[in-house]
Design a protein that fits this description.
The protein has about 375 residues and is α/β, with parallel strands linked by helices. It is built from 13 helices and ten strands. Strands 2-1-3-4-5 form a five-stranded parallel β-sheet, sandwiched between helices. It has a five-stranded antiparallel β-sheet with strand order 7-6-10-9-8, with helices on both faces. The chain is rod-shaped, with a radius of gyration of 52 Å. It comes from Algoriphagus aquatilis.
């Protein structure tokens, strides 16, 4: 169906109200409208009920006679003009036998849309009504589209407001986490030429690095990371970071006072204002490394003690035990000198006991060393 036919089919369903104190005029108009295809037609000869019928039935077009007793067409137009903004567009086709230009001018100023001059021309009646209803149809469509657009704008505005509020909440949350983090967090841009100056840092940076935030924003990685003196070191780390999006490694940083500290670094790359940016989180592991080194040193001491126990202490003890065995094996020593035999036997038993103690100490030392290695 063509657009023109679709519009015509639609306007034939519109409601029409005729207000004319002359019944023959109403009958004529109803017949013309029926022949045209209109079915929703309401009419009245009592102009005093016109406004009530307009309010109740909400016609799409009003055919209005100007010269009527009690309430004239001008009176009805004047009342309708007061409610124009609160109701949908309703064209008013004025029915008049008055050809005075001033009457038409007055009617137009009060909101009349068009005129039909009595006596009516059948073709003109049908065409003018269809033209006005077509105009109403198009205006209603435009209004519906505008209302729809307003609804969409309202929905989108609410969505944007919600998104903005959510973003603000997230920003506050992440800012709180950023500021409360005890690890040093630094943010900077990165490109082929290297890292930019730091563009953001958290309060922990001052405690970790010794620089104030204002001082740090005038520095870059070159000023704090000792590994940056090796260009290959930087390029290798940068390449891995760009490939994976994140990277964990260890480095040594130089604090403001010149002190060197071992750092565990977690780096993440992302887009910020159309540029590649890197967020570095530094965790000081100097004490951890010192603790590990102390444990390794202790392990070396354990190994040395275990070796001394196994080889240095037990060797002379074994020789002593051998000599004592020889003494106890002397011919009939137990019968010849029971007292001496008793003392030698006591020394031999003590030697065996001491050997067993050394064995147990060696085993416990080896077990402790094994646990620390794990």
């Amino acid at each position: 169906m063509s657009e023109k036919n679709r519009i015509k089919e639609s306007i034939l369903k519109h409601k029409i109200l005729i207000v004319d104190d002359q019944l023959p005029n109403i009958i004529l108009l109803e017949n013309i409208l029926n022949l045209t295809g209109f079915n929703e037609i309401l009419s009245t000869t009592d102009s005093t009920t016109a406004l009530e019928k307009i309010e109740t039935h909400k016609p799409d077009i009003l055919l209005l006679d100007l010269m009527m007793p009690e309430v004239t067409g001008f009176d009805i137009l004047a009342e309708l003009e007061k409610t124009t903004e609160s109701r949908d567009f309703m064209p008013v086709l004025v029915l008049t036998a008055d050809t005075n230009p001033k009457s038409k001018e007055k009617a137009l100023k009060l909101g009349a849309s068009d005129f039909l001059t009595k006596p009516f021309d059948i073709s003109e009646v049908s065409l003018r009504i269809q033209n006005l209803l077509t105009t109403k149809y198009l205006m209603d469509q435009l209004k519906n589209q505008n209302d729809h657009l307003e609804d969409l704008v309202k929905i989108r505005t609410e969505q944007l407001q919600t998104a903005k509020e959510e973003a603000e909440r997230n920003e506050k949350k992440y800012r709180l986490l950023f500021d409360a983090n005890l690890d040093d967090i630094n943010l900077f841009y990165i490109d082929e030429s290297g890292p930019s100056n730091f563009i953001e840092s958290n309060p922990a940076s001052e405690a970790v690095l010794g620089y104030t935030k204002e001082e740090l924003l005038n520095l870059s990685l070159h000023d704090i990371d000792t590994g940056m003196v090796d260009s290959e070191y930087f390029q290798e780390k940068l390449q891995k970071l760009l490939e994976k999006g994140s990277l964990e490694f260890e480095t040594v940083i130089r604090k403001k006072n010149g002190e060197l500290r071992n750092m565990e670094v977690k780096a993440n790359v992302f887009e910020l204002e159309g540029k590649k940016a890197v967020l570095n989180i530094y965790r000081d592991i100097t004490d951890r490394i010192k603790f590990i080194e102390a444990i390794l040193k202790q392990n070396r001491a354990f190994k040395e003690i275990a070796w001394i126990q196994s080889h240095v202490v037990r060797a002379p003890l074994a020789r002593m035990m051998g000599v004592i065995h020889l003494l106890t094996d002397m011919d009939d020593l137990e019968n010849k000198d029971p007292e001496l035999y008793k003392f030698i036997k006591m020394i031999l038993d003590s030697a065996f006991e001491l050997d067993q103690i050394i064995r147990e100490i060696s085993e416990k030392t080896a077990e402790a060393q094994k646990n620390q290695d794990l």
